[in-house]
Amino acid sequence: MKVATLGCLGLILGAIAGGAIGIGLGFAWTAFFGTTSFEGYSGMLIFFMFMPIGIIIGGMAGGVGLGLIAARDDAATGPQDRSSR
User: Mean of the pLDDT values across residues 73-80?
Assistant: First the structure.
């Protein structure tokens, strides 16, 4: 249960962080390559391409990362004695 909970928490936190990083990279991309802002093209590029890609990659990395950390922690502690319940 701990692995699933931390995996979902990692998914949410990773998606938030990935979206923020995606927006930052999108702003850097438009500034570096001089993307035109005609009819909001640079904003659409950032919010419809960079942000969703950042959310997907960040969510996957966060979920897998925290899930692996939780699984390693469960494996290190060994099986729990559930007979006392």
Answer: 71
- Tokens 């950390």 label which residue? 69
Mean pLDDT along residues 41-53: 96
At position 59, the amino acid (one-letter code) is G
Burial string for 42-74 (b: 16+ CB within 10 Å, else e) reads beebbeeebbebbbebbbebbbebbbeebeeee
77 touches 13 (CB < 8 A): no
pLDDT higher for 85 or 20?
20
CA distance 31 to 45: 12
| Residue 1 pLDDT | 81
Quote the tokens at residue 17. Answer: 């962080």
